[in-house]
Amino acid sequence: MINKSKISILVPNLHAGGAERVMANLANGLAAKGLSVDLVIVADKNSAVNKNNVPNLQIITLNKQRVLFSTWSLLKYLMKSKPNFILCSHNRINILVLGYKKLLSKKVHVVVRESNTFSVYYYFHKTLWDRVINFTAMKMYPICDFAVAVSDGVKKDLLENVNLPNDKVGTIYNPVIDSNIGEKASEPVEEEWLNQSEIPVIAGVGRIAPQKDFTTLIKAFAELLKVKEARLLLIGDRDNYKTEYEKLVDLIKTLNIEDKVKFTGQVDNPFAYLSKVSLFALSSRYEGLPGVLIQALACGCPSVATDCPSGPKEILEDGKYGELVTVGDHEALFKAMERSLNKKHDKELLIKRGHEFSVDKSVDNYLKLFYELSE
């Protein structure tokens, strides 16, 4: 029976990014249903996971700096723990576990989770090592028992670019929104701009990385300032992307808008910000299923987004819950931002849409998958 099964969820780390929160949510949700869950982390622990004190959930860290260095430790763990299901989430870990598959019991079901649009990720990651990893993933993914795509766009891309049969690929949306979101959203933030209600504040959220294309957002914001007073908060980690950060700082100086744009760095509670800003703008070049867009909706925050592969079009239902614009088109993004700031929004409708990507729904879909695989 499924409720007596053991599930190992394997992730590279649990830093405080959106993708990492998703896996912690899933581990907690499955354990709360009574399953025995090991959350296995290659690098380090995240105290936020431990604070939930969920029975049946164990946090195991391999204390390795990189996935490649965990080869023996991970195999040793899997041979000893003998899980019924392995859910791995990251192309490097996916490859490693699929390489072990013949060494594991035939009763072990290996599920790989793909969180990015495979072909687009491949296009933007062109170092030799990235190419080796992506090529190897394309060859090894068919070995899995099932591949979970985080959006229909990711699923379509997998079917077109990886030799996987239709019956081995399915979409399960991420467990983004939990029951604590209201409490998180209502927490105060020490940001003076958010206390100046007469001036709208726009938020861009995510790693300060080329993927998020904050260059386009900054250019769009500069155009907006020509017709409307506003502020821009860029919320996200920049420590590993210093070159990109420096490029954005130079652009802001060139546009002479230094006093209108602020980098907050990574924040512990993005919900508190998203519930208080006037507009969220997603400018990404590519995604899988952008959790921050779902978070914004669940906080009742009006949003605009690029129609990038993949996710925004599904989340916003082709523009029903927020405008979609062409990737890299700062003029189109500016106009969408201006229209959104000048119209009234049904916040309850946005909140309801965001809550459709709940932890409970996602966990139930994973349970259904595990049940079908065990039949």
Please explain how this structure is put together.
It is a single chain. This protein is α/β, with parallel strands linked by helices. The protein folds into 2 domains: 2-175 and 358-374, Rossmann fold (3-Layer(aba) Sandwich), CATH 3.40.50.2000; 181-356, 3-Layer(aba) Sandwich (Rossmann fold), CATH 3.40.50.2000. Helix content is 41%, strand content 16%. It contains 16 helices and 13 strands. It has helices spanning 18-32, 47-50, 71-81, 91-100, 118-124, 128-140, 152-161, 181-185, 214-224, 242-254, 270-274, 291-298, 312-315, 330-341, 347-354, 359-374; strands spanning 6-11, 36-41, 57-61, 85-88, 109-114, 146-149, 169-171, 201-205, 231-235, 261-265, 279-282, 303-306, 324-325. The strands form 2 sheets. It has a 7-stranded parallel sheet, with helices on both faces. Strands 10-9-8-11-12-13 form a 6-stranded parallel sheet, sandwiched between helices. Helix 9 links the parallel strand 8 and strand 9 (231-235). Helix 1 packs across helix 16 and helix 12 crosses helix 15. The longest helix is centred in the C-terminal third of the chain and has 16 residues, at 359-374.
Structural class based on helices, strands and sheet pairing? alpha/beta
Helix content: 40-55%
Strand content: 15-25%
Overall CATH architecture of the largest domain: 3-Layer(aba) Sandwich
* CATH domain topology of the largest domain: Rossmann fold
CATH class designation of the largest domain: Alpha Beta
Give me a quick take on this structure.
The protein is built from 16 helices and 13 strands. The chain is an alpha/beta fold and 375 residues long.
